Predict the structure.
Amino acid sequence: DRMARVPESWDTATLAARLQKSPQLRDVPTFLRAAQIVGLKRVAAGGYNLPRIAGPMELAQIFKAPPAYYKITFPEGFTASQMARRLHSAGVAAADGFRHLCYPDSGGVSPYEGTLFPDTYQVPVHATPAQLVALFQSHYFAVIKSLPKTPVPGYKGVPLSQRDITTLASMVERETSVPSERPIVAGVLLNRLRAN
């Protein structure tokens, strides 16, 4: 299967023109007739699973159904709670379950805070809360693994753990949104940590 991404709501003519550029659709008039038969007028934004081979009627039925994925962006600095709200507003069914998983005691700091990587994702509409956490954390761990392994000395020269570095980075993000100021803010915070 392949995924077709629809970035915004399209009418059937726009969808047909886009599909015609791929090997999925050869006969636009037949697809437009099939779309009319199934009642497809507009396609919702999102990701749609396409079989390797599909006829015009099957394609029309696929795009008539709700998307299998939603494209959702989580900016840097978003908390797990803000991510849950964004998932909810996008229509992801497990958004409330995601919030409860991230905040098991209904408050305080989430045990997942700092490990849910900010980025743009194709989020499965029917993902479970645990699958959502796994999606965001797997990206976090992949990025962490790609970073240089230079130890950062902390209090009394003891190197900071990966969790400490993530917390420090989150604090820097909260303090400034200007990239050129981040090293300065990080230096000030590290000096305070080392002095304590």
User: Anything to note?
Assistant: The chain has a mean pLDDT of 88. The longest helix spans residues 129-146.
